[in-house]
Amino acid sequence: MIVAGCDVGSLTAKAVLMNEGTIIGSGITRTGPVPEASANAAMQLALDQAGVTLDAVAHCVGTGYGRRKITFGDTVESEIACHARGAVWQVASVRTVIDIGGQDAKAIRLDERGNVVQYQYNDKCAAGTGRFLEVIADALGIELDALGPLSERGTEHLTLSNQCVVFAETEILSLVNEGKETADIVRAMHQAVARRVVAMARSIGVAGDVAMTGGVAKNSGMFEALREALGMPLVQVPQPQLNGAIGAALVAADAAGRSAGESVAAAHA
To answer: What angle do CA 80, 241, 44 make, to 5 degrees?
Structure first.
């Protein structure tokens, strides 16, 4: 039975197709001004990869900030629940998830089945989010994909005192004018984001193995900064950017299973 999850975030839309607990197709695309179109594009990439059509999908769950704009979705689920389910499915020992998205950050504590026990959510300020990294990368004239490798070359310890994106951008430009190395500035930026996110995570109690999810987890410099700020090992899940869509597909599998069971029961009534 083929099921699907579609996660429409502020920066990217992701889709995953699963069949009997195995990913058979996935797609990632930038989120445009029309969430419906972004969801459609991501899902079409997944369908093409799997070699099936949308008619073959028994159930689709939408998640992310644009979940209610997914026209082909059957039901919706919060991104908190989906990231929890996805993380435990990818690495069974995970009990804390830190997700850094484009415009928010989440810390989630969960049980062994991927159920949410407690969570903290930051969507009021761009500090501690992918948007913060994007603004600073633009100010430095650096591609987002280059931040991780560049950060790893940093040697001088710099500290960013401002958490507000606007003031942090000004502070970073001042460091540039002082002749500070770009690699050191990027490393300091990652550390500033990590400190804010870890403070949020500790407010709910960090327990068990900790995983970082979301597209920002692909940034090696950010991953290392978060690990240092935590002061403990950080689990790398195989598909961090697809994690929310994977969780949504797992919820879809549950729903499809219930539906199939109810149909069988009705047929024998």
So the answer is: 100
Q: Beta partners for 97?
A: 108, 211
In tens, the pLDDT along 30-46 reads 999 999 999 999 999 99
Q: What is the CATH number for 101?
A: 3.30.420.40
Judge whether 105 and 200 are in contact, CB under 8 Å. Answer: yes
User: Do 87 and 97 fall within a single domain?
Assistant: no
Q: How far is CA 92 from the centre of its chain?
A: 18
Q: Which amino acid is at 176?
A: V
Please write the tens of the pLDDT for every residue from 126-178.
566 777 888 888 888 888 889 999 998 988 888 777 566 667 778 888 888 88
Residues 210 and 80 in one domain: no
Residue in this structure with the two tokens 């991780």, named with its chain if needed: 148
End-to-end CA distance of the chain: 24
Give the integer Cα–Cα distance in Å for 107 and 53: 35
Structural domain total, the chain: 2
Residue 106 and residue 59 in one domain: no
Q: Is residue 150 located within the same domain as residue 247?
A: no
d(CA 8, CA 71): 12
Stretches where the chain sits below pLDDT 70 are: 123-128, 162-166, 259-269
Residues 60 and 139 occupy one common structural domain: no
In angstroms, the CA 186 to CA 136 distance is 8
DSSP string, 144-159: GGGHHHHHTT--S---
Calpha distance 35→99 (Å, rounded):
21
Q: pTM, whole model, 2 decimals?
A: 0.89
